[in-house]
Amino acid sequence: MKQKLTLTVETDVVRRAKKMARKKGISVSQMFEDAIQTYDVSPIQTESQKAANRLLSLLEEVDTVQPLNDKELLKRHLERKYG
Known about the structure:
Layout: H1 11-24, H2 28-38, H3 47-61, H4 70-82
């Protein structure tokens, strides 16, 4: 169901919107509806948050490391040290 919506924007914005819609061959209403439907509603992230997300995605791709017990670690150390 379609519903009427009234927006208050600068005159220049209205002119630009009409010009853009005319170039696309659609109405301003359709252009607005398309823009809202495709708008990404994910929250804005700081650089630190983006870096943390990149790090998490990299960590998810890495194979898990199997921890070694103390005896195995000592054995490997001695083998490296004394050949």
